Amino acid sequence: MDHAAINDITDVQTLRAMLADCGAVIAAHEQTIAQRDHTIAFKDAKIDKLTHEIARLRRVQFAAKSERMDPAQRELFDEAMAADIAALETELAALREPAQPAARPPRQPVRRTLPPELPRIETIHEPASCDCGTCGAALVKIGEHVSEKLDIEPMTFFVRRDVHPQYACRTCETIVAEPVAPSILDRGLAAPGLLAQVAIQKYTDHLPLYRQEAIFARAGITLSRTTLAEWIGAVGVALQPLVDALRTKLLASHVLHADETPVAQLDPGAGKTKRAYLFAYRNTGEQPIVLFDYCPSRAGKHAAAFLGNWRGALMVDDYAGYKALFTSGITELACWAHARRTFVDAHKASGSPIAEDAVRRIGELYAIEAKLRDLDDEVRTRERRRHLAPKLDALKHWLDDLQPKALGNSGLSRAVDYTLRRWSALVRVLDDGAWPIDNNPIENAIRPIAIGRKNWLFAGSQSAGQRAAALMSLIATAKANGLEPHAWLTDVLTRLPTTKDRDIITLLPLA
């Protein structure tokens, strides 16, 4: 065989090898493309699923805003929905390709400015070398990038050590020393800041003492719940004069809100709990005062005992226990939010367009009231009579015409009956611009109790309930006046032992 034939055979073999290699490469590429298509299809399906799930949760979240829920359920629902949506959005963001447009423009997070008064722990991250890694020349600083992130350390305890040096005069043997200031617990180990922390965590953060005991233990401090309970008892007794002073100021107001909510109280004799009540009162004006009165029952006599000789306008719901008050010189005010709620419930139950129309009509009253909010009482009275009175007259005629047509035991019938039964108290909003249109302020103040009682489980005794009411009154009033409760309570517990009775008013949590 000549050399030409041999070369031809070699070329053919080489070509076949090259073709085989190309086939393998093509097959590998096809497999890669198939895998990529599968991955893209999977991602598209997952993105579509997550997008629809986020949209569904947002619809549920929006729809639930108008539903009546137990406040504790509302807190848990809002937290759970926010966490679920955030988790899904995070997963969705990780799946999206950079080039793939989002279904809608993503929400741009608003970066909050961190408070300047917070201490800063600064770490400077210098390059490993001050010389250029490319040419070896010295580096010159041309600027810096600074990022700030909020951080926290677990609860940090420290010991407040007060030293009182003693000096003596060698001539006359006189001993001089700064006197030891009295404290809430003279021989106790708790400083005012710690006492305030325990009280705030129990009555604002709703942490029972057994949970606080575990939290303190994680920080390396052993404090039994018995000790914590003794501190709460001492603080409650010490702060009672402030509560008494707040009650005096509250009853100097001419307009009050009132409401009540049940709490459980331990009944050792029966081996179970019994129902007690917290009556809540709030004034109107620039210095809001919130007071809780712990009572063994819901009887109206407890409200009468608390108010005593007070005579003014009282905003309440339709509870019969208050009725006796309105025969002794107290003016009854009724809540339009309660009336509106009855129609909202009727609409939800049956989809009634008539109930929906009632909600719209009451909404018009609130729209007018919102425009009058910043006026003084005299002008507000005049403007209410000018703008609200025609709306109220029209609503009254509409309800009178509707009442005989509504089915006897329907939700709509009950809503109409409730509103007409309370009509004389509802329209008193026209008589005085200082009188509120609803009882929402006291309902907002009493709402945390519903959350707290699920954590407290029960009050241990009548005196424990009264002590809790006193502390919650002070804390609620501090919050209503824009004061930070822990800072205020720490300051008060520091100054209280040296404050004379006549100066107690200077310690009140009023703005």
Question: How does this model look, in words?
Answer:
It is a single chain. The chain is α/β, with parallel strands linked by helices. Helices cover 52% and strands 9% of the residues. The protein has 14 helices and seven strands. The mean pLDDT is 84. Residues 473-509 form the Transposase IS66 C-terminal domain. Residues 50-122 form the Transposase TnpC homeodomain domain.
Give a quick set of tags describing it.
511 residues, alpha/beta, five-stranded mixed beta sheet, two-stranded antiparallel sheet, 14 helices, 9% strand
Write the layout of secondary structure elements.
Elements: H1 3-64, H2 71-95, E1 166-168, E2 175-177, H3 192-203, H4 209-218, H5 225-250, E3 255-267, E4 272-283, E5 290-295, H6 300-307, E6 313-316, E7 331-334, H7 336-350, H8 353-371, H9 377-402, H10 411-421, H11 423-426, H12 440-456, H13 462-480, H14 485-495
Parallel strand pairs: 3-6, 6-7
Antiparallel strand pairs: 1-2, 3-4, 4-5
Helix pairs in contact: 1-2, 2-12, 3-14, 5-13, 7-8, 7-10, 8-9
Question: In short, what is this structure?
Answer:
It is built from 14 helices and seven strands. By secondary structure, it is of the alpha/beta class. Among the domains are: 3-95; 241-501, no CATH class.
Estimated radius of gyration: 35 Å
Outline type: flat
Q: Quaternary status of these chains? A: single chain
Portion of residues within helices? 40-55%
Write the element-wise H/E pattern from the N-terminal end onward.
HHEEHHHEEEHEEHHHHHHHH
Low-confidence stretches: none
- Tally of helical runs: 14
**Overall pLDDT level:** 84
Beta-strand residue percentage:
5-15%
Biggest beta-sheet profile: 5 strands, mixed
Class by SSE composition? alpha/beta
